[in-house]
Amino acid sequence: MSFWNSLRISSSALQAQRIRLDTIANNIANAETTRTDEGGPYQRQEVVFQPEGESPAFATVLQSFRSRHLDIDRQVGGVEVAEIIADDDPGQLVYDPTHPDADEDGYVLYPNVNLVVEMTNMLSATRSYEANLAVVDAAKQMAVKALQIGRS
After folding, report:
1. Digits of tens for pLDDT over the chain (152 positions)?
2. 70-72-75-78 Cα dihedral, nearest 10 degrees
3. Which of 5, 10, 116, 138 falls 20 to 30 Å from 132 in CA-CA distance?
């Protein structure tokens, strides 16, 4: 794998994890939102990842390089956000007849956001982000060492 390819893959993962962190933060911020513009309580959002697509021109150049220099035939790519979907699990019904969004029986439907799950997902996304930063730093250090060896 080349220096530039490792940077491209890591940067795609950094972008994807940033979007995941933003989505988690939005979920936490709306954990008590019982009324939205669409009607009903806020619905938890989830990020769906997929392998990063390559443009045909880039893929052709990369495949040509691999066949001449690396003798491998597999594609290595990054990750991208395919979509952000709403979690359709029902929220929690809480009896609170004084709440402005209570139904005729006095129950309020709260969002399906579980703060423990969101904090766990936030830790996972943060660790993934940190790991990809470490890959970028390692690639940079290897490039610097290669330049130093070349100067000797």
Report:
1. 577 888 899 999 999 999 999 999 999 999 999 999 988 999 999 999 999 874 444 455 555 655 655 555 456 688 999 999 999 999 999 999 999 999 999 999 999 999 999 999 999 999 999 999 999 999 899 988 988 898 87
2. -50
3. 116
In this structure, are residues 85 and 46 in contact, taking their beta carbons and an 8 Å threshold? yes
Q: State which residues form the domain around 66.
A: 3-31+45-86+113-151
Query: What is the separation of C-alpha 28 from the centre of its chain, rounded to a whole number of angstroms?
Result: 16
Q: Are 48 and 82 in contact (CB under 8 A)?
A: yes
pTM value?
0.78
Q: Is residue 135 part of a domain?
A: yes
Q: Report the alpha-carbon distance of residue 39 to residue 95 in Å, rounded.
A: 19
The rounded distance, in Å, linking the Cα atoms of 136 and 126 is 15
**Which two three-digit tokens encode residue 55?**
């443009």
